[in-house]
Design a protein that fits this description.
alpha+beta; 9-stranded mixed β-sheet; Aminopeptidase; 9 strands; globular
Length: about 190
């Protein structure tokens, strides 16, 4: 499941704790269930997402953004994607479970991106990764095919068509929905 973090600084500070293999004090983290997520949120703000698993806790993040030409949104951008499991997690001993969780993270990310793109009538999803390995993880674990890819000195960019054929192939009879289920905030 994904939860939205509206405050970018809070989002970054949580991820710094996760990436450092430190434990988060969940007494101060409040999750509020989201019944109906409005895709139009993307037109006003970036959507910072944290991925949570019942056993592993917070183990993934991604940011969804609108890519604009003039004043209109022309594509959905996915960037700042990371998947991390604590070094002391038992999952490292179970490669099958590790791969299942990685696939769940990436596939739920793309399901959410496809859903938002469809709701906003966007024809493309554009991914930006800082490293070639990260870009390859998007394709491998996310099970997506890029219609074009370009490696620049700073990052790797991939484009995915979000037409109906891609949607049907990706969802394969599953309900057409998103995986944003909560909003997270921090209280003292």
């Amino acid at each position: 499941m994904f939860c939205i973090i509206k405050d970018h600084k809070f989002y970054e500070s949580i991820w710094e704790i996760i990436a450092a293999d430190e434990l988060i004090n969940f007494d101060h983290l409040v999750l509020k269930s989201i019944e109906n997520f409005d895709a139009k949120t993307l037109l006003k703000n970036d959507i910072h997402l944290l991925f949570t698993d019942d056993e592993e806790g917070i183990c993934g993040k991604a940011t969804l953004s609108s890519i604009r030409a003039s004043k209109s949104c022309v594509a959905l951008g996915i960037h700042d994607v990371a998947f991390h499991l604590r070094d002391d997690s038992d999952i490292h001993e179970d490669i099958e479970r590790f791969e299942q969780l990685a696939e769940q993270f990436y596939q739920e990310l793309f399901k959410t991106a496809f859903w938002i793109s469809h709701k906003l009538s966007l024809k493309h999803i554009v991914t930006t990764s800082k490293h070639k390995d990260d870009h390859e993880d998007l394709a491998f674990f996310g099970k997506v095919k890029f219609s074009s890819e370009q490696e620049t000195p700073k990052d790797v960019v991939g484009v995915i068509s979000s037409d109906l054929t891609s949607l049907e192939q990706f969802y394969e009879g599953e309900p057409f929905t998103h995986e944003i289920k909560a909003e997270a905030s921090f209280i003292l």
